[in-house]
Every structure is written in structure tokens, then in C-alpha cells.
Design goal:
10 strands; D-Maltodextrin-Binding Protein, domain 2; 11 helices; alpha/beta; 19% strand
């Protein structure tokens, strides 16, 4: 009897010790980073830049897996249901993961409860672009111009529920303006019609708008974030121009399945933050239109994830945006 009790106690102690020990030796095999979009897009390129340096730092290969489909929900479901051992992670983005419950009838996951936050990688601010045929050159003038023409102007987006769409819907709510949504199937065709003047207004990232701004078609009158964006530092924020509190900043980060051991999440977080602090990585991110993100702990990133899920759920509901 005593021997049996001893064996049970020894087994229990071994289990208790397994967590910290496994975290200390983690990783012992390749880590799979699941990307919810096709290769070549902004999320994929960012992931590969970080994965290359992170793998070298951790001493294990980071295997990129592109799992596009259902607006990112296929990849999110795959990771949410994976073993919480730190070997299957998701390139998460906002909006996308955060707005899935509102824009998808049955996403299959909860963006807050079903994922463990690991860390923030980068942010991206959009620019409010106008065709030069429109007289306004700043946000205040633009708001006044639209108010004098309710429902007469239109704005382009890459599709329903995209950051570009949500940004304008929030701006409409805050500014009290009426402007008509024209969704396209992608950012490039949408921007092309803005350049040609077919649709005169569009929120767009630097990656899409930058090459055209040098020609003056379109003209950028405001940045969507709380801070000016690094690729276009001379464009004042919309908040600076009479819309205090307006902040539409897309972010990109890494999450894993819920219940990943805290020690593993912290090890990944510390390694990611070290990679993001490299001058070489910072230069690469700015070159492709990203802003450097503040270093966040898993808890801080989790708070951001929760806050944006709640904030944008309300924006989507108030704007009566429904899934395609």
C-alpha cells in the first residue's frame, strides 16, 4: 500500500515538473506558423520576415503554412483546435480575427476565449485618399464638402468588412456624414478606379496608395491611426484635424491555441520582441508599409485583442454591416 502511494505521489510530482521543464527546452521540433491568406500578401510577407529571424533565434525552423479561405476562418479554426503545445501558431490580424464573430454567421471560434495571445508584430495605418477633382485638401474641408452633398459621393473598398470599409463606417459615424460604399474584389482594382476618378474616395494602406501619391492622383488628406504613419510622416492624422479619438490601426500578431503554457508563450514573446528590435527588421517593415509596434507582453497583447474585438463589434452592429 505504501509503495502504491509512493508511486502515485512520484507520478504527480513528475507531471507538475513537466510543464516548466518542457518550457525550458522548448522548442525541440519545427514550429508551424499558419497564415490565413495566400502567399505574397502583406500578412504572409510580414510573417516570413519575422519567421526567418525567429527560427534562427530559437534554433528551430518556423514552417510557414498558408491556409486561405472563409475570410481567414479556416486557418483560425485549425489553430484553435490544435494542441496547445506552442508548435502550431496563427498569424492573426485586426480586423479579421477580431471581427469574425460579427461578419461570419458561424466562425467556429471565439477570438478572445479560444486563443492564447503571444505577441504583437507590427501595425499599419491607412490614408484617406481623394481624387484631385475634389476640392478639399484637409479633413475638415472634406467633412463640410460631404455634408453639403449627402449621399452624392461614393467611396471604394477592397470588400465588405475590410479595414478600409470599417474605417470609413467609423468615420461616417463620428463625422455625421453620408457617403455611399462601393465594394470591389481587391485593393488594386479599387484604387485604380479612385486614380481614374470613377470613385473619388478611399481609405487605403501605403502599399496600395503610395505608388500613386507621387503623381498627385490621388491626394492623401489624413492618416487613420492615432499617430502619423512612418511611410507618410507629412500626412496629419484625422484625429489631429477635428476628429479626436478617431483611430483605425490594423495590427498583426501571433496567437496560439488557448491554454498554451505561460512559460512557452513568454519565451516566444521575448524572442519575437528581440527580433522586432533589430534595425534590419525595422527597415524591412517600413519598406513594405508597416509601422513598428510597441513591444507588448502576452497579457498586454491579449488586452488589445479583447478591446478591439469589443470596439469593432459595436462599429459593425451600428453600421448594420452584414457578411457577404
Amino acid at each position: 500500500m505504501k509503495r502504491m502511494i509512493f508511486v502515485i505521489v512520484a507520478a504527480a510530482l513528475a507531471l507538475l515538473a513537466a510543464g516548466p521543464v518542457s518550457a525550458q527546452i522548448y522548442p525541440i521540433k519545427p514550429i508551424h506558423l499558419v497564415v490565413p491568406y495566400p502567399p505574397g500578401g502583406a500578412t504572409d510577407v510580414l510573417g516570413r520576415i519575422v519567421a526567418d529571424k525567429l527560427g534562427a533565434r530559437l534554433g528551430q525552423q518556423i514552417v510557414m503554412e498558408n491556409k486561405p479561405g472563409a475570410g481567414g476562418n479556416i486557418a483560425a479554426n485549425l489553430v484553435a483546435k490544435a494542441q496547445p503545445d506552442g508548435y502550431t501558431l496563427l498569424m492573426a490580424n485586426h480586423p479579421g480575427l477580431t471581427t469574425a464573430p460579427e461578419l461570419t454567421k458561424s466562425p467556429g471560434f471565439d477570438p478572445v476565449k479560444d486563443f492564447a495571445p503571444i505577441g504583437l508584430l507590427a501595425t499599419q495605418t491607412m490614408l484617406l485618399n481623394l481624387h484631385p477633382s475634389l476640392p478639399p485638401n484637409d479633413v475638415r474641408s472634406f467633412v463640410a464638402y460631404v455634408k453639403e452633398r449627402p449621399g452624392q459621393l461614393s467611396y471604394a473598398t477592397p470588400g465588405i468588412g475590410t479595414p478600409h470599409h470599417l474605417a470609413m463606417e467609423l468615420f461616417k459615424q463620428m463625422a455625421g456624414i453620408d457617403i455611399v460604399h462601393v465594394p470591389y474584389k481587391g485593393g488594386a482594382p479599387a484604387m485604380q478606379d479612385v486614380v481614374s476618378g470613377q470613385v473619388p474616395v478611399m481609405f487605403a494602406s501605403w502599399v496600395i496608395a503610395g505608388p500613386h501619391l507621387e503623381t498627385g492622383k490621388p491626394k492623401a488628406i489624413g492618416a487613420s491611426g492615432a499617430q502619423r504613419t512612418t511611410p507618410a510622416p507629412n500626412v496629419p492624422t484625422i484625429a489631429e484635424q477635428g476628429s479626436p479619438g478617431f483611430d483605425v490601426t490594423s495590427w498583426f500578431g501571433v496567437v496560439g491555441p488557448a491554454n498554451i503554457p505561460a512559460a512557452i508563450a513568454e519565451k516566444l514573446n521575448e524572442s519575437m520582441n528581440a527580433v522586432l528590435a533589430m534595425a534590419e527588421v525595422k527597415q524591412q517593415l517600413v519598406k513594405i508599409g508597416f509601422d513598428s509596434a510597441p513591444a507588448m507582453t502576452p497579457a498586454e497583447f491579449g488586452a488589445l485583442l479583447k478591446n478591439d474585438t469589443e470596439k469593432w463589434s459595436k462599429v459593425v452592429q451600428d453600421a448594420k454591416i452584414t457578411a457577404e
